Amino acid sequence: MPPMTAAAAAPSITLHYAPHTRAGRVRWLLEELGLPHQLHRVDFAGGEHKGDAHRRLHPLGRIPVLEVDGVAMFESGAMLIYLADRFAPGTLAPALDAPARMAYLQWLFFVPSHLEPPLLDAAIYDVPAERKAAARATFDDALRVLGDALADGRPHLCGDAFTAADVSVGSVLGWARGAGFLDAHPTVLAYGRRIAGRPAAKAARAD
Question: What is the average pLDDT value for the chain, to the nearest integer?
Answer without folding.
Answer: 94
